[in-house]
UniProtKB/TrEMBL annotation:
One of its GO terms (molecular function) is metal ion binding. GO terms for cellular component: cytosol. GO terms for biological process: adenine catabolic process; hypoxanthine salvage. Belongs to the metallo-dependent hydrolases superfamily. Adenosine and AMP deaminases family. This is Adenosine deaminase. It comes from the Bacteria.
Amino acid sequence: MKDISSDKFIEALKNHDMDKLRDIPKSDLHNHFTLGGSRDYIKLQTGIDIPFCKEVLSTMQEMHNWNDKYIGEKFNNKEMRKLLVDATFVQAKHDGIKVLEIGEDVWGLGEFYHDKIEYLINAFQDANQRIAPEIELRLQIGLSRHCPIDYLTKCLEHFWGNEIFYSIDLYGDELSQPIENFIPIYKKAKSQGLRLKAHVGEWGTAYDVKKAVELLELDEVQHGIAAVTSEEVVEFLINNHIRLNITPTSNIKLGRVERLATHPIKELYRSGVDVTINSDDILIFDSDISKEYMRLYNADTLTAEEIDDIRINGLRRL
Ligand SMILES: [Zn+2]
């Protein structure tokens, strides 16, 4: 698949021209907005320096420790939360993002928006219009996997019925509670017409990916890279048109994948799985979309033409 930007995109990759690469339309469908912002913008607005993590982390706890040290309390109030939303649009604009899927954790509604869903929606829509109206915002509802189901269900009452929400995602510690616990929430989300996503197969197995897709009726999986270890699961993903929103640098920095050259995206894409390339946590991993494309090209994980095909796939309306 090619589009009007394909020739320029392929040329920019081959010439290692980051400025030209940034100009070309792309999507970011796996971006945790509190960590998705522009480092320069945050520094300019607050004086706070947030260095990216240089070493490879080996547990989610180490990532949480990084988060506590550099983000944590400093950004834990209404004003700073809005600043992080703004910073994410500034970053996305700078990187030529045209489709951005981000959203707020359900617990954030009480914490940062006075329990008023319209304040929450407005924070994202206002930043979108003010900073980057050219970006299509796909607003997501976020669930932390360690939270008790009763608590999440109660928080979600405020979110249901608002047509602006595009998708729902489950993230945090993949091993904290069984995926079965989330079936009622995902049934409700499906009845609301939301696109169903969850983080699976980053720390878990190929079997966990298949099980989550079947039980929650997922449309998309965040990560899902463990699927590569099972031919049966790869077939299953292809036959059911399940999209994997993959984040290569994050996988390396969290020790999920040893080398970029052999990242599972290579085999998954070439097998025919619907994959996209995304940032995950830009502030921690130094992973904006143009950098991800360039790194995959430089490591010879995929060809420029293949990366272009994945770029166009990410822009597709589903
Ligand atoms: Zn993620």
